[in-house]
Design a protein that fits this description.
Structural class: alpha+beta
Shape: globular
Strand order of the largest sheet: 1-11-6-7-5-9-8
Number of domains: 3
Strand content: 15-25%
Distance between the termini: 49 Å
Order of helices and strands: EHEEHHEEHEEEEEEHHHEEEEEHHHHH
Helix content: 10-25%
Largest sheet: 7 strands, antiparallel
Length: 405
Amino acid sequence: MQAESSQRQIPAALKQWDHWMIWGKDEKGRKLLFAPWQRDDLYPVAWGADAEPRPETDFETARRYWKHRQSYDMPDGVGANLGLMQPAPLLLHEPPMEPPLMLVDFDDVRDPVTGAVTDEVAGILDRLDAFVEISQSGEGLHAYVYANLPGDLGKFIEPLQDDGDIELYDHARAIGATWEHVDGTPDTVPDAQDVIDDLVATYESRATRRRRLNPSGFAPGSGPDHADFDTVGSDSGIVDSGGDRSPYFDINITKVANTGYFRRYGDETAGPHPQHGPISSAPENCTNFNIEPTHNGWYCFAHEAGGRAIELAAVLCPQTDLECEDLPRNAARLSWLRTQKPVELARAAIWLRANGVIGDDADPPLAVLAVLADRADLHTGRSDGLDAHTRVVKTIFKHLVPGDI
């Protein structure tokens, strides 16, 4: 299938949706939301569940202000590209209808040069029989339907059998729409509950199945409403794809990310990002940083990045030179730190141990030991420099402090 677009179009069904904003990106690629009808400028606004007054408006109002976007002031340093701005439907934290509007987001599934997508994606689109647009990157697709995620999942992100990922959202999402309608797909937004249920059953991982069957995400008597974030237990299960099974990949994310303003939203907890905080709202109203129910994953909506505690530590550690925007979308699954940034992984591991997040007796990832072996010139013929020197390198690691490498 060739997913090409010859026109921009917003389906009539979506124009009846009364929750619209204008979206764009700043010079760093961060998604920003604007409501010039509220403030008479293009300053970013908060849109979380606690935002007052509510920033969204009806479609016609959003479209009118979007057409005249060149007329409004923009704050210094934002540098949003006016040409990329588009009206954006907002999926609320508490959807106003049943079934709610849902975004079916396909990532890394389209060749931006040829427009080709796999037979797998083409088959899903045929079953959805819905309005489809090309994403802003040119490498993804968005389909719009009405459906609920089963089991209060909140969101669904899983790899496809071929290339790319499928993501499902039915609330708490500002959609970065382009309205580049894929030729040959309908201009309708259908009820697709049966198809969505089948997609979840087909692609869900074991961890997602546990979440779906246990929507609370916590054992009885635990969770944000019953325990301090520094002591909530971890339902681990993450294994580094490179085989580096280390406790550093199973750290409870809340031990690293406790910013003091987390609240429960459905099956997730949300609050301000522990590094850059909120983009445009007060910390107590911010929901730009989400923690998964298993407490092993996090997601930054401002930069569309996430991972495990080790990836967050690499962002927070003062000795590394990484920010959220540097992480690929699937950093954990790609083992990006281990394969691409092993020195930053080592610095993050040292920082975690030095700050008491993990005990001195926990073995660091093999990639960290390999970095230390290389720096100590302890090579034995193996590509990772370990073997007989593993015990020596582990001892070296235990005596390192932040800033030593």
